[in-house]
Amino acid sequence: MGRMPSFERSAVVDAARDVFWRRGYAETGIxxxxxxTGLTRSSLYNAFGSKRGLFDAVLSAYLDDVxxxxxxxxxxxxxxxxxxxxxxxxxAIEADAPRARLGCLLLNAGSxxxxxxxxxxxxxxSDYAAEMRAAIRSAVxxxxxxxVPDAVDALAAVCASLVVAGLTLAxxxxxxxxxxxxxxxxxxxxxx
Length: 192
What we know:
The protein is mainly alpha-helical.
């Protein structure tokens, strides 16, 4: 019988997430992951199979712990949910929170060389984008019940695009990210 791991898997994934988020998949070395997690290379490989296996675990946890946690309120019938979602992102970026300054881990992965070579990463990012668009569409429908479904779809597409642009800009141009996200409430109000 094999020896049971003596570490908390979620803590390892969180520590690795910070490294991948800051440096990207391709630029992250195993030595950095060892240092961040406190595990040896062999322990990481035994637990996750490979650097890529660890990255997959990181993306999965990020999707569940960060993305879905933030998207969940958007489908709850609260007409102010989208503005609250956007304001939460703006506050984190404005406060220069370390993770907010790094943008969205999934969007970063989707724009990296890894995504161009890897169908699984492309599919994960595409599924995330679809999930985000659906949540935003639900929030737009709650916020603007006066609009016909086609107008709700169009407005939701614009709002989702602004969210993606803001999260993408957060890494390189904080002020542009803030301005882009700040335009969502007025876009919601003036549409149609």
